Amino acid sequence: MRYHSTRGDAPVLGFRDVTLAGLASDGGLYVPERWPSFSTEQIAAMRGLSYAETAVQVMLPFVGDDLTEAELRALCTQAYDRFAHAAVTPLVQLDAQNWLLELFHGPTLAFKDVALQLLGLLFEKFLVGSDAPLTIVGATSGDTGSAAIDAVAGRHGVDIFMLHPKGRVSEVQRRQMTTVLAPNVHNIAIEGSFDDAQALVKAMFNDADFSGRFRLSAVNSINWARLMAQVVYYFYAAVRLGGPERPVAFAVPTGNFGDVFAGYVAAKMGLPIAKLIVATNVNDILHRALSSGDYSTGIVTPTAAPSMDIQVSSNFERLLADLAGGPIAEQMRGFEASKAMRLTNAQQQGAAALFVSDRVEPDDMNEAMRWAYAETGEVIDPHSAIGLAAARRAGLPADVPIVTLATAHPAKFADAVERATGNRPHIPARLGDLHERQERYDVLPASFVAIVAYIAERAKPRP
Ligand SMILES: Cc1ncc(COP(=O)(O)O)c(C=O)c1O
Ligand SMILES: N[C@@H](CCOP(=O)(O)O)C(=O)O
């Protein structure tokens, strides 16, 4: 399998190189040259497979010659062994139509672990025999940071620099990152928003001098391998609910558009998906884009679902390029200059075939947390509640099961959950003494010069 940039002006790479590269050198995102496709029989044969084995079947077409099936199986087994639930991503039924897909049983209690546990192992595998140390630069609104740090802390030949918006992540999220004191882990709280952090990360890749001195890589969903691993749970859930014979809908709390784009990829690969419901909080650029074609940024508003406080959604570029049938460099350059763009008719109509969207206000989010707790006994986090609120009012036919992706453990957002439900969720015992541990991080302005100087002082340059 070969990978092309959404902007059409970067080298075409294989899976290994695309995993190590992260962002394409033309500022675009790598996408596979074609979507692999499964027949109905092949999908039906996934019924009853373990999570790790489903992962092997779904991801094998993407890895090309860079991993054998046996190597991929060994990596998946190792990655998913660390999950606290035997099903890895269990389904929980809420009522006749609604289900939760609990994606938070990994080491850091968010869906990011599903992909990042694997990505850490892929980095290790692909770096064997290489003398160029990897400098991972990442931006987080709270969850990617801890999952990525857990996946690479202490690994030889890798340094990770993780930028989070100061004061805009929950205390548990911050502590999960800043209490990891391994020497290769560097946490930076920036004076700005997640969008500022993400823009700084992209600017580092696009700076020829900086990216020439350090071998940069990415752990955000700009890295194709992240999304590839997230495609798996759409198959895993759907076949358990009657797929491929019965189409299933998914409601996805959305920020950077990675998780829901993985659902789009699953549909492209042949999985019958009735609808993908894109649920946003008041930072609703994706809802506006999908409902009216207006993709224009506003000021990021801090909310009780901080991981979705995002305006510039990186992976939307992948969708727009796929719907346009090729590179969209000009459209993206226009967006970067004006911070606004209109979708073309083809993009709008193409998206409407599979996606619907909804903006969920804080009261509706709280109501969804209350409903889940009172009616089903499930304690859900604010992000999952945004997905569930959208699912319950999507108006889909009653015979279509709707799976809401439960993207984080409620204890990561205990204050918000307690405010809504009166019930305070507790951190699982395996996180132990998180609140007592020593923290280490630096605070920097959201300035390219300041951040690259900080990293350059600490990272190991290419030999
Ligand atoms: C808990 C949680 N829910 C939802 C999202 C949104 O997912 P995505 O950015 O893939 O759209 C995030 C952040 O990525 C998150 O951390
Ligand atoms: N919500 C995310 C934001 C980054 O998203 P990613 O999927 O691109 O890594 C977070 O928690 O950091």
TrEMBL record:
Organism: Sphingomonas hengshuiensis
GO BP annotation list: threonine biosynthetic process
Pfam families: THR4_C, Thr_synth_N
Catalytic activity: O-phospho-L-homoserine + H2O = L-threonine + phosphate
Family: Belongs to the threonine synthase family.
Biological pathway: Amino-acid biosynthesis
NCBIfam families named in the record: thrC (TIGR00260)
Keywords annotated in UniProt: Amino-acid biosynthesis, Lyase, Pyridoxal phosphate
Enzyme Commission number(s) from the entry: 4.2.3.1
Official protein name in the record: Threonine synthase
Domain Threonine synthase N-terminal, first and last residues per copy: 2-80
